[in-house]
Amino acid sequence: MEYTNLGRSGLMISKMSFGSWVTFGSQVDLSASKKMIKTAYDAGVNFFDNAEVYANGESERLMGQAFKDLDFGRDTYTVSSKVFWGGEKPTQVGLSCKHIRDACDAALKRLQVDYLDLFFCHRPDVYTPVEETVNAMSDLVRSGKILYWGTSEWGAQALTEAFGIAEKYNLVKPTMEQPQYNIFERDKVEGDYSPLFKTFGLGTTIWSPLASGLLSGKYANGIPKDSRVTLPGYEWLKARFESEEGAKKIEQTVRLGHIAKKLGTTLPRMSIAWCLKNPNVSSVILGASRVEQLEENLKSLADVKLLDGHVMEEIESIVQNKPKAQSDFR
Q: From start to end of 174-296, where are the E strands?
């Protein structure tokens, strides 16, 4: 495993991390969760990602119990939660001071920890002033309930506003952003956020490096019955894969798979390595429903060296989606 600073903070985070979205509480039970967490931990992973909305809190409960049973030293790993979708009542959603405080307390209880290392604002909240959100997060940091706060899928303008408010009122600045990033989804990380990396030293813990499984290559011959696309609540993903644009991307994955084969690796590993190659990516969050899948994807770090300038250009010639304002990481 390799480690890097999360943004400009002193926190050393593993280049690959493990997340529980989709799987914990939906596809895997406590026993399987423990096995995968231990597999990741033994491989050097020190960041485990979660959120209040994942399986309606069950994902955090499983992870918390797994940590307790495995008895890892609390000073040897970092764990996150995210706040935005906490329930159906008005006070259970968004980024108001109240919901942020309540969500943090609930996450601490479910995860069975005294503090959260990272706490993300899961989406921007157009109904709450950014100043209120920044102030609430700062209070949590100063109270010791969280160590670092950040955002997920915020726009560059809202992030810039958050940094400006923190600077103006001497509040705690956001440390990290968690955007989707993969070979097919590049605009935010390579385009919109480029100035933020240079100006604010923003760290990133990116999600969906395999584009919701598209870059696994398993959809080349249709939708497998056991894939996440067939899970209740993911009809939107199935519709996306079955669209004209989805069909085009599936065809591109076949061609990308040929490149991976020539390199002596797999499409998933090459796709994860592609994300790791970007210097503005602090950590790539891996998801898995099987230990064997996780073990294979953890090998991706060794494949980064295979992606020289020529290979990167070959990948580019297939997807042809480089943002207009991009960070050149070839």
A: 176-177, 203-206, 283-286
- Distance, CA of 135 to CA of 172 (rounded, Å): 8
Three-state SS string over 237-253 comes to HHHHHCCHHHHHHHHHH
CB burial of 259-282 (b: ≥16 within 10 Å; e: otherwise) equals: bbeebebbbbbbbbbbbbbbebbb
In terms of phi and psi (left: phi > 0; alpha: psi -120 to 50; beta: otherwise), the region of 96 is beta
Residue ranges and CATH numbers for the domains of the chain are 3-319 (3.20.20.100)
- Gap between the Cα atoms of 32 and 30, Å rounded: 6
pLDDT digits (tens, 9 = 90+) for 74-108: 999 999 999 999 999 999 999 999 999 999 999 99
Give pLDDT tens digits for 150-189.
999 999 999 999 999 999 999 999 999 999 999 999 999 9
Other Cβ atoms closer than 10 A to 233: 9
For the chain, the distance separating the N- and C-terminal CA atoms, rounded to the nearest angstrom, is 22
CB contact at 8 A, 17 and 49: yes
Active site residues: 54
Give the DSSP H or E segment for 35: helix 30-42
Give the pair of three-digit tokens for residue 178: 């968690």
Q: Taking the complete model, does pTM exceed 0.85, yes or no?
A: yes
